[in-house]
Design goal:
The chain is 39% helix and 14% strand. By secondary structure, it is of the alpha/beta class. The protein has a seven-stranded mixed β-sheet with strand order 2-1-5-4-3-6-7, sandwiched between helices. α6 packs across α7.
Amino acid sequence: MASLFSGRVLIQNNSDQDELDTELELSRKLDNRVVLLFFGSGSCPQCQTFAPILRDFFIQLTDEFYVLRAAQLALVYVSQDTTEEQQDLFLRDMPKKWLFLPFEDDLRRDLRRQFSVERLPAVVVLKPSGDVLTRDAADEIRRLGPSCFTNWQEAAEVLDRSFLQPEDLDDLAPRSLTEPLRRRKYRVDPEARGAKLQGGEDDPAAEGRAGGLF
């Protein structure tokens, strides 16, 4: 996941605004996690309404006041603000664990095009490999709250087992009656991965992996 921001700087939304500018620092914050890319703007009324919902959602999953162990979750604010002052004001009351791109980094715009974000706010959910689980989870977060993460985590386990402990790899029985439905809902579209073989042929290794899982 850190490869998405390779060669870039991410800033932590704490009082010191610590910069993550090495591959190791980025890896520690992003790898083996579900990553949310939050596209928003302080000038967007809908974003102003949604931001407190997303803030509480994130805190309830990552703050040890609410949970015994923080979820494997990271959030990067991809600002669509028109000024740096507007961006800073928007982030002022957001969690300290949030990360964001420097205002002058053009990757803010490039990511919006890369993930085909057409409206604000939008929350793109990425699995640890960088594949897209859902292109906009804003409505899902509003409706389901923190339980969304269970859905995403289970889907990520099915796709690449990133969250499974070694002793669990041979035991892939569904954890609930609804898990098979979540597996289908969050199945990654090969086109969304942007990783086709030359000539447009399907990846036989991928087909083998999929056949072994389903």
